[in-house]
Design a protein that fits this description.
By secondary structure, the protein is of the alpha/beta class. The chain contains 18 helices and 11 strands.
Length: 499
Amino acid sequence: MQKTLLYSIFFVAICGLIYELIAGTVASYLLGDSVTQFSTIIGTYLFAMGIGSHLSKYLDRNLLKMFVTIELLVGMVGGFSAAILFLLFDWVEHFRICLYSLVLVTGILVGIEIPIVMRILKENLPFKDLVAKVFTFDYIGALFASLLFPLVLAPKLGLIRTSFLFGIINVAVAIWAIQAFKDELKGRTGLLSSGLTCLFLLVAGFVGSDHLLAWSETNIYQGNVIYSKSSPYQRLVLTKDANELRLFLNGNLQFSSRDEYRYHEALVHPLVSQHKLRGKVLILGGGDGLAARELLKYPDVESITLVDLDKELTDLFASQEILIDLNRDSLKSRKMTVINDDAFTWLRKTNQVFDLVIIDFPDPSNFSLGKLYSTAFYSQLRSHLHPEGAFAVQSTSPVAARKSFWCIVETIEDAGFITTPYHAYVPSFGEWGYIIGSFSEPVFDRAVYPEGLKFLSAEVMKTMLVFPPDMARIESGVNRLNNQILVRHFESEWSEYAH
C-alpha cells in the first residue's frame, strides 16, 4: 500500500501542474500572451488547492474509495479542460468566468487528494517520514512536469492532446489503485466500471483531439483554417477565405493579405529609401519574409540576414506555395541568410555590423518580448550599426496604445539615438506606429522609392510624420530590463480591446 500511494502522489503532482500550465497557456493564446494570465491562473489554482485541503477534513469515511473517486474526477475535469476552454471561447460572453471556474474546480480536487493520501498512510508511517516522503514525491513530480511541458508536451502534442493524455494518466492511477486495494475497497465493481468508462472517453478525446481543435479554431478565427500547428514558441494558425489570407500567432493577428503591403511598405521604405548605404541589412523578426520582400526591391541591397526565433514559421513561409506567392520567395533569395535564434541572444554573440536594421517583432505583450524593446536591447544594437546606419521598428498603435508607443520612443532616445516617429493606417489593425532610430536626422526629401509600391509615396510620407492631438507625444517613461514598464502600459491599454 505504502509504495502504491507514494507513487500515485508523484503522478498526481505531475498531472496537477500540467493542468495548471495548460490553463495558463490557453489563457495566453486566447486572451493575449501575457504574464498576467499565468500569474492569475497560478494564484487562483494555488488558492483552490488550499480550499481543497481545507475541505478534505470533512471527508472521514471510506478514504480509499474517496481517493479513487477524486482521481477519476480530476482526470475527467483536467483531461477535458483544454478542449472545453477552446470550444467555449467563441460561444460565451464571459469567457474568463468559465476559465477561472474550471481552474478552481481542478485546483480544489487536486487539493483534496494529497491530504487524503496522507491520512491513509499515517497508520503505516511515522509522521516525520510521512511528511518527508509525501512532499518529496510531490515536488519531484512538479519538477518533472515543469520541464516536460515546455520542452516536449506543448510543442509535440499540443494543448488539447496533452490534457487528454494526463487525464488518462489520472484515471490509470485510479484503476491501478482499484486493483491494488481490491480487498479493502468497497464497491470495487462500480468504481472499476466508472474508471473504464472515463478511460474510454479520454482515449476517444485524445484520438480525436485534432478534430476538436480544428472545430474550435474554425469558430474562433474568421475564414477557413488551412494550417495550424504548435511550435515550441507559439501557436501558428493560417486562415483563408475567397479574398484573404491571415496569419495568427497565439491568437493574435499578424497580417492580412488584403492590406499587409501597407504595413510592410511603411516599415521598410521610409528607412531604406533615404539611405544610400544599404548593402548589408539585418531583419530581426519578420519570419514571414514580407519585410524581406520589400527590401529585395532595392537592387543595391547586397545581403540580408534574417533572425527569427521560430524555425516552424520560417520553414512554413519558405515552403508553402500560397505563402511563397505572397512573399515572392524572399526567404530563398540568394541574398538571404535565415538564422533561427533569439534576437537578444544573437546580438550579444555576433560581431557583425550592418548598414540598416529592420525590426519586426510581435508587440510587447509579455516580459520575454518586452526585453526586445528595452534600453539594453537598443544599446546592444548600437554596436552592430554602421556609424551612418539606422534602424526602423514597428511600435504598436499610437491610438489604441498611445503610452506604449511613446514609451518605445523614449527608450530608443535613452539608448542614444535620434528618433523619428511616424504612423500609417492599416485597415486590419487601425492606425499603426513606427519609429526610425538613427545617429543623425533622416532626410526624407532625398528618398527614392522603388517602382510598384501600392501605398507609400513622398506625399504620403509627409502625412505619416504628422501626429494629431489624440496621438501626440506624452511622457511614458523608459523601458528597462529591471522595470518593463512598457509591458504594463501595453497590457493596460490593449485590455480594453480584449475578448
